[in-house]
């Protein structure tokens, strides 16, 4: 029995499923989750002393890798100066100015403690600004665990949603509409019928929480066009793509301008931070400037603000992104001949989809394209990869990430291991 096995048995008696966020529990791949003790650079080490090259990287925040010295120094300074004041302080101002001066459509922003909170608050602002109740979202996009976003398409009416979780309030089910990605006709249809009720359309402009499903520019343009025509706001959820697909995120890449944007993950340098921001007139609706209440005891926590700023300072000149993209190209080359594998990648986000029926057809733009055996094939591959020292997100439908601390050799070795295991 490994130390991880022992800890997992204990953890299950004090926490649901033994974990504090579901995917960590390894249900998607079976077996015992590795209890990690420490990490540095691209390496994470478990309580049994096994080290892994980490391609999960805390599900996205660690674009610099673990324990980056600049982030560590900023966090250490906060430990000296104090880490929670509950007052106005200069650290959140610095971080807000750093972001706002580099991302013109973020005129004003508010820090919160998670991506979920950012989304929840942005939706509230949208409802207040429009006086409307409905939110339109897309099948296959994830926006955190707020009630109104835990819904997917039902089988009947295109946009009549069904809950993805027990315990959702029934009124939020009625006020959320769900439509497919990559489908302009369905989009036009839902706006034609319900447009006047829609406060906002929320989308991951680069959907990266259920596989990686890059959208056509024309589809994203249609989303913005339909929303504007109906008087609805556009919210880009860039919690995962923000500061990763270039400093300006996917909005910077595709040239579209959201009314509101949500951030999380990278923005806190690995500490718990989220943010929502956008048009000043909309953000001025937020308390205490305006009537939309939103608060947080630990919001703009100085330790997290200073760590976040240190992380973003490493990214702002853009040079790191080219190197991360080069790592991605290496993985693409290395996996070109892997059996029954298709790789989708956007810069430093990658996702491979497996099938024993042959390589899945690319590009995949909606979850409907996933082969039925993708999950099984991934589970079979997952534990042998762990044994060879590679830690991937423990689910077939979670993406992987490159960090500044990865070496070319580590990427080549991952590709070789996958090719070998798929061949055998
Ligand atoms: C991770 C994520 C969230 C939720 O953020 P949390 O910090 O986990 O609450 C929301 N939206 C997107 C696009 C995400 O990737």
- Widest beta sheet: strand line-up: 4-12-11-10-9-5-8
Instruction: Work out the helicity level.
Output: 25-40%
Mean pLDDT: 97
N-to-C order of helices and strands: HEEEHHEHEEEHEHEHEHEEHHHEEHEEH
Q: What is the count of DSSP helices, taking H or I runs of 4+ residues?
A: 13
Q: What's the number of domains? A: 2
CATH class of the largest domain: Alpha Beta
According to CATH, the homologous superfamily of the largest domain is Type I PLP-dependent aspartate aminotransferase-like (Major domain)
Bound molecules: pyridoxal-5'-phosphate
Computed structural class: alpha/beta
Measured by DSSP, the beta-strand proportion falls in: 15-25%
What is the architecture of the largest domain at the second tier of CATH? 3-Layer(aba) Sandwich
What is the terminal separation in angstroms?
Answer: 28 Å
Q: Which parts are unreliable, with pLDDT below 50 for 5 consecutive residues or more? A: none
What is the radius of gyration?
21 Å
Remind me, CATH topology of the largest domain? Aspartate Aminotransferase, domain 2
Major sheet details: 7 strands, mixed
Please tally the β strands and state the result: 16
């Amino acid at each position: 029995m490994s130390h991880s096995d022992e800890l997992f048995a204990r953890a299950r008696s004090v926490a649901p499923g033994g974990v504090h966020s579901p995917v960590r529990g390894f249900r998607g791949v079976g077996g015992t989750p590795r209890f990690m003790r420490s990490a540095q650079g691209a390496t994470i080490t478990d309580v049994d002393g096994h080290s892994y090259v980490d391609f999960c990287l805390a599900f996205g925040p660690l674009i610099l890798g673990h324990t980056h010295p600049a982030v560590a120094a900023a966090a250490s300074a906060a430990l000296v100066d104090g880490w929670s004041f509950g007052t106005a302080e200069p650290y959140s101002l610095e971080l807000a100015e750093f972001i706002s001066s580099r991302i013109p459509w973020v005129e004003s922003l508010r820090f919160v403690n998670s991506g979920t909170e950012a989304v929840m608050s942005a939706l509230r602002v949208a409802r207040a600004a429009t006086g409307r109740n409905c939110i339109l979202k897309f099948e296959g996009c994830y926006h955190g665990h707020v009630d109104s976003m835990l819904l997917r398409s039902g089988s009947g009416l295109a946009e009549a949603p069904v809950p993805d979780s027990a315990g959702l309030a029934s009124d939020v089910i009625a006020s959320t509409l769900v439509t497919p990605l990559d489908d302009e006709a369905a989009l036009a249809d839902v706006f034609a019928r319900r447009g006047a009720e829609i406060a906002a359309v929320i989308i991951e402009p680069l959907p990266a929480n259920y596989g990686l499903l890059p959208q056509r520019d024309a589809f994203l343009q249609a989303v913005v066009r339909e929303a504007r025509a109906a008087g609805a706001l556009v919210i880009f959820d860039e919690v995962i793509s923000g500061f990763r697909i270039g400093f300006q995120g996917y909005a910077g890449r595709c040239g579209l301008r959201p009314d509101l944007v949500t951030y999380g993950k990278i923005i806190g340098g690995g500490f718990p931070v989220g943010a929502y921001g956008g048009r000043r007139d909309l953000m001025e609706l937020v308390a205490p400037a305006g009537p939309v209440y939103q608060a947080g005891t630990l919001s703009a926590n100085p330790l997290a603000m200073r760590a976040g700023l240190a992380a973003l300072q490493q990214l702002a000149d853009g040079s790191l992104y080219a190197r991360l993209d080069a790592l991605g190209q290496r993985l693409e080359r290395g996996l070109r001949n892997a059996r029954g594998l298709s790789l989708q990648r956007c810069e430093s986000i990658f996702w491979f989809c497996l099938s024993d029926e042959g390589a899945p057809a690319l590009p995949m733009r909606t979850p409907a394209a996933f082969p039925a055996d993708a999950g099984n094939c991934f589970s079979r591959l997952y534990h042998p990869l762990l044994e060879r020292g590679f830690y991937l997100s423990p689910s077939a439908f979670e993406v992987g990430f490159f960090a500044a601390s990865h070496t070319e050799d580590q990427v080549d070795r991952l590709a070789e291991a996958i090719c070998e295991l798929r061949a055998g």
